[in-house]
Amino acid sequence: MKAPRQSNKQKRSLGSPRDAAKSSSVTATEAKNQFGQLLERAIKGERVYITRHEAPKAVLISVDDFQALSARATTKLDSLRGEFDALLERMQAPGARAAMKAAFGASADELGIAAVEAAKKRD
Q1: Taking a C-beta distance cutoff of 8 angstroms, is the pair 59, 50 a contact?
Q2: What is the pLDDT of residue 88?
Q3: Which of 16, 17, 62, 66 is deepest in the core (most CB within 10 A)?
Q4: Over the stretch 68-101, which tens digit does the pLDDT of each residue have?
């Protein structure tokens, strides 16, 4: 049985003590034939990249690493949701409604003038 290839490259950090976890790459066939061994390595913190035609297609990671990644995604999504809600609230203000109505009814020249004025305010 062929031993899985080892990779010295470090992959993207998870932000935990397991950041320095080693990684390896195996073909899909090797993964199928050696799943038990690969699972044990993943449980110990190793990231196992599964390739097909020499291109990475999947990664076997521990539950701890998966939960850390999922928590980060949830935190980022919650942050974006908060920003969106605040923007939507500002857009619902009476003055914003009137401004949007005027913008949709404005000519190209009027929009150009408004854009220049807005850019001057930012400088």
Answers
A1: yes
A2: 87
A3: 62
A4: 888 887 788 888 888 999 888 888 888 887 888 8
Class of domain 5-62: alpha beta
Containing 50, the helix (H) or strand (E) segment is: strand 47-52
| Cα–Cα distance measured from residue 71 to residue 111, given in angstroms and rounded to the nearest whole number | 42
- Domain ranges across the chain: 5-62, 65-122
Q: Tokens 């004025």 belong to which residue? A: 117
Whole-angstrom distance, CA of residue 110 vs CA of residue 121 = 17
Parallel, antiparallel or unpaired: strands 5-7 and 55-60? unpaired
Which positions ≥6 away from 24 have C-beta within 8 Å? 4, 5, 6, 7, 41, 46, 47, 48, 49
